[in-house]
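FORM 7B - TANDEM STRUCTURE REPORT

SECTION 1: FIRST PROTEIN
SEQUENCE AND TOKENS:
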Amino acid sequence: MTEQINKQADDAATDQAVLEVIEGAAEQATEQRDLSSEASIALVESREAIAVTEPVEELPLDLKAPELYINRELSHLQFNIRVLEQALDESHPLMERLMFLLIFSSNLDEFFEIRVAELMAQLKYGRESVGPDALHPQVVMNRIGEICNAQVERQYKILNETIFPQLENENIHFQRRRDWTNEQKEWIRVFFEEKVQPVVSPIGLDPSHPFPRLVNKSLNFIVELDGKDAFGRESGLAIIPAPRSLPRLIRLPDNLCDGGDNLIFLSSIIHEFADEMFPGMKVEGCYQFRITRNADLTFDSEEVEDLARTLRGELHSRKYGAAVRLEVDKRTPENLIRFLLREFSLDEAHTYRVDGPVNLTRMMALRDLVDCKHLCWKPFTPGMSGRYKQKNIFDVLRQKDQLLHHPFESFSPVVDLLRQAAKDPKVLAIKQTLYRTGVNSDIVDALVDAARSGKEVTVVIELRARFDEESNLQLASRLQEAGALVVYGVVDFKTHAKMMLVVRREEGKLVRYAHLGTGNYHSGTARLYTDYSYMTSDADVGEDVHKIFQQLTGMGKILRLKKLHNAPFTLHSRMIEMIEREAKHGKHGHIIVKINGLTEPQLIRALYQASQKGVKIELIVRGMCRLRPGIEGISENISVRSIIGRFLEHTRVYYFGNKGKPDVLCSSADWMERNMLNRVETGFPLTGKLAERVKSDLDLYLADNSRSWMLHSDGSYTLNKPEEGEELVSAQETLLGQFGS
């Protein structure tokens, strides 16, 4: 679809086309999903947001035509909407449905902090740029506003009309002020006087007290006042910032309640006692609001002399970036909303009126405040083969390569490899990349132990892992204090590769052991994300990993690798070559790719060309996808599905059939511009039984008919469900059954 900005007639025609798509997608969704009446209505409404572009008719064969590409930001929103859908899925436990609803808020926060902030900056400074879809940033912003307003309204409706009532049925109560008993009020008053009032600093607005700088995503209240204070001031307005140190949910003592778990919101306490913060004055109204700011860290790489020092200086500014979104209680008077918009230099389009707490993500604390095990997924123990229980993991890897599929299989062997290396007197050196690991983790503990024991420990830490910068700075300091050599990679290229290299002296020669993964070295996320871990003593792989570390820590020309492919040098071109090879096989060609995002135009065009040659292309793309499947003459041989379930799908796998001699690679890289062209990434081949196992996993995901969503050429998604008489298949549940206990 080619947008013509400022032409009303074209806009009207586009709107009509979009409406037709929405109606069709909604009818299809209603037919295909057996939901309760209320949930069906909600699902139909969600389709209105998911279908963001009209069907493409009579498309040209120019594979660069904008009609062939879905907008990146709008596709990103569609993923978030699919997450929100899980809150209505009654096959999930109730507490998990609430968590999905809250994750939607968390995802949306980051979307505004980064993606919307970038679009607003483009428009503000007159440096608009368009992607392959050719949508102008203002058009994208308009659609984001429409979609987000509809989905946020729907989110609160689900919370208030579905989740809260069902929690009530489970004896989990959120007590409103009007329902507080006298005994509860007295306890809450004491709590306010002892825990809240001493740390709250209400700010009256007058010429000597201008509007305060409010922290990104903080809870605040705007208060209408009547009367004069002790100094004779009568500005009429005040701001109450809620300290971040205070919990947003407070559990009432059981002896003050009639049973069950009883909770109140901090916002309710501040509302109740707002007048006591302004003695002698009358509070006419108190309304909560929240501001979201630009949280992206930017700096001129040519001016950077010390990356760590530069980041430390930038981290504070993240809290006070330009405002990008205002969330307010829907009961807030319009004059106060206009006042806030002026203060934050925003307009009505950036305003979200909500029916409930404005900071929903803080409700995740509920899990720790109530006994809700029966409302959560049943705990599981990741599987672990007996071979890893042998005394020496190096003996295991000398016998054959190992592949682990997390979280279904334990992450412990990866940690054990490092632990044993730290203690083994035969180990001389350890090299490791860290992206999102955390300061206190088993991995870091082992690296610290190795460094303190005198081994040569080199760690490449990516300081710019978004929202983990501060943690990574602390991590770097801890490792340096232990004696490890810490480097920060390459300034203009994030180090996203997941690599570990252990150098061990065996029988008078040096042997390299390597670990390569699709996910981070984090034991916590290894229980929540699906990822592959590959461990090997293969000499060629070890040498390749060594060369990549050389590139990261030293300087020199591109080094030729024997088995691995690495971005930004060879991975992208190798993917193009392998797609083109499948295209030569025509109808005998077969490509399966499982990734988190597909946005890189050259790869998309190569897939289109392969489809035109008859190649069967099956894509499993969890999040953003610019490619349009199912377009006659261009992509009718391409299918795209997204898996949303208990675990966050995170594996990156590339399968190329090659007429019965398949190539199978796992990687740290998605098929996105940043991964292929602006990051340090690795792609590692698997052969034999390991390759067969990965292909079997891919087939299982392709057979999933309960947690998978199909992408259509109009940009809409439809939830798959079994045909009549067909067995229900959930890839994640099947894998849990195979490995977990």
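SECTION 2: SECOND PROTEIN
SEQUENCE AND TOKENS:
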Amino acid sequence: MTEARARLIEEESKTYRVQGFSCAGCAKTFEENVKHLDGVSDAQVNFGASKITVIGTVSKKELEKAGAFENLHLRDEHEKAAPRIPFWKQKTTMKVYIAIALLLMSFLADYKVGEGSTLPLMLIILSILIGGYTLFIKGLNNLIRLKFDMSTLMTIAIIGAAFIGEWIEGAVVVILFAISEALERYSMDKARQSIASLMDIAPNEALIRRAGKEMLVNVDEIEIGDIMIVKPGQKLAMDGVVIKGMSTINQAAITGESVPVTRSVDDEVFAGTLNEEGLLEVKVTKRVEDTTIAKIIHLVEEAQAEKAPSQAFVDKFAKYYTPAIILLAALIVVIPPTLLGGEWSEWIYLGLATLVVGCPCALVVSTPIAVVTAIGNAARNGVLIKGGVYLEEAGALRAIAFDKTGTLTKGVPTVTDFITLKGEELETLKITAAIEKGSQHPLASAIMRKAEDSGLDFHSVQVEEFQSLTGKGLKAQVDGVQYYVGSPALFQDLHKEIESTIHDLIIQLQNEGKTVMVGGTENEILSLIAVADEVRESSKEVIQKLNQIGIDTVMLTGDNRRTAEAIGHQVGVKNIEADLLPEDKLTYIKGLNDKHQRVAMVGDGVNDAPALAASTVGVAMGGAGTDTALETADIALMSDDLSKLPYTIQLSRKALKIIKQNITFSLAIKAFALLLIVPGWLTLWMAIFADMGATLLVTLNSLRLMKKNDDE
């Protein structure tokens, strides 16, 4: 590590919430201003989340001074926001009211006092200054630095309109642009509300028991190991483990699932969830900044800062588009009067109208509002999308590969059939469970659960000379009798041949996708135990929905072909790949990528890490209880359930469609308005209406994503 980098890491890093951003360009200007402050090594603005992270030593007052051009206000990251001021009461909206009132007064004054009076003109100039003073400050500063953006274009156009005596049109341009800015600010605030609502989910205080005393403590002061008391009807303030009591918990805030789940001793619970019935005592396991809801908020805000591919295209396009519009306007002003004998005032007017209509407002907001809105909507529905790039990629997916165990199935083996061929059933099950108690195999736990559910005390059975037969099963003595429990192959070796009726029964069970174990002695088979990893209730419906929307579904598993096909056909996947090692899954995903270009892999985020990484989009299940899933996946389904996957694909497709619509419409309306220059029909009024109308339409179109829900 270099000395400079080490020094940078040692410097203080501080994050603030920013209030007052009106556009992405303003956020970028603020970021550049902060970077030039003394004591600041670096700064990063997250426009979507309205945050700035500053590395270095600088006061909040100095930062607000750097944002004075936009009247920005800062607060600490975890500080409660001031009550939201209604849109119609905000300063930016109030100046629009005043500017409109002054313009109307100028018309009235002109009607009352007649020609020759300077009062109407003074009122119009006052309307322009009040409605556009922040615009002029930004525009003139940019012009001095030869930085060409929306503010620069509008400033030149308004000054030009005043220069050629078009005062009224200049005032209307100012007012309409101010309305457009206010609407853009409002729409971004609406889009951010999805995150603001997440922040308000968990309480700021909790009832804590310390040293035998109960006290109300702020979450910042709660320590790991504290005992939190949660009464019925209260929300949990911290993550933890239940140590006393039993209740139903509504986890909709985390997983998006409104159906309550039962939680009792040793079960994990999360901050922001609602305790519906019983009194719970919960041992706190994480500090407030490390809770699941805090991580979700952080990851969603980081995701909103990640640019989607279409946004990167728009930013790059706008970088060259704006100077090109200024050059075009200059050519329109100069060439016709000098070379074709046109009227200077007429062509200056058309040049100014070109500047206004060329303003890239609608184009610039076409993508970020859609991305922020969609990611926020997904978070509220229990789906964590890590950025605009994954939102767009999910919308373009052509194939999805599923790991079987723990994804399409529950991942917990269960005894489905216990068939007694000789002897008494419960006694045989009791002896089998007693022998399996010495095994670490997952199938052993399934047999022991079956015995417990049957009320059998197998722990009292004396097992002697226990021995594991690697790859085949177990043997042990019970009451002087040698018993064996293992695969059919073990008894094939013991008995040389298995009776045809028993063999046929084994094959029948295996064809149903079950793993078959055999119990018996050296001389006879006493029982057949069929164990299966149960298919999730939602798997079949999810696969069916994905198939219907044109997704090629694939199941990948290390299980044998017979079991894999039984499960695969049950859930309805189109392709089944069995007997796969982890490296085989990776190879198969790479092959799918070559065939379909965009492929998702759905797994648990741990065992399937190589395949998840190789896919276009890695989707992890059960993010609410797994830090690894939250960190490694591109998309995390917070509930341990696939039902949110079709919703995610549909939301992503709708977002992609809306982004394309916005970009196409923004460019089309500009092109149409610019064509009106040829016959000389373009006016400043038409230009600003075209610009504001396009901005308003793409904004409203993007906000449609707020209403997308998982029932659609």
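SECTION 3: OBSERVATIONS ON SECOND PROTEIN
The chain has 26 helices and 26 strands.
Residues 1-10 have pLDDT under 50 and may be disordered.

SECTION 4: SIGNATURE
Preparer initials: ____
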